[in-house]
Structures are given as structure tokens and as C-alpha cells.
Write a structure and sequence with these properties.
It is a single chain. This protein is mainly β. It has no helices and six strands. Strands 1, 2, 3, 4, 5 and 6 form a six-stranded antiparallel β-sheet that branches.
Length: 69
């Protein structure tokens, strides 16, 4: 894969989620498989982009998100 990123479908898209690492809640806007490498060796990671109450988006590992109750 030569692209720097690819969108990934996720069951919680456009739903309220919580980032368990920070405790912040917001709406899951996208899950993207991103090339996060900074060297010749490629390293891909699925990142979740969450829009918080302030309207700003932040990213976290997709494994850190869970449905907000």
C-alpha cells in the first residue's frame, strides 16, 4: 500500500464515544488506517478521529474508543 492513509468502516461512526485513555467524549468522525512511520520501515496504525464538545477533533488509537453511555 503506497497511500499514506485509508478510511476504515466502523460500527460507531457518527455516534457518541469515549476515549478511554483520556476520558474525553465526543462524536466519532472517522477511522483511518494511517502510515505513521518516520523511517524507511512502514508502520500502519488505525486511528480514530473524535470531535469533542469544543468542536475540535483529536485522534486516538481505535482500540481506545468505546460507546459513551
Amino acid at each position: 500500500m503506497t497511500d499514506r492513509y485509508a478510511y476504515v468502516p466502523h460500527r460507531l461512526l457518527r455516534r457518541r464515544v469515549r476515549d478511554v485513555a483520556s476520558g474525553v467524549e465526543g462524536e466519532l468522525m472517522a477511522v483511518i488506517n494511517e502510515n505513521v512511520s518516520d523511517s524507511a520501515h512502514e508502520q500502519w496504525m488505525e486511528l480514530a478521529y473524535v470531535r469533542g464538545a469544543s468542536g475540535r477533533e483529536f485522534s486516538t488509537a481505535v482500540t481506545n474508543i468505546e460507546p459513551a453511555e
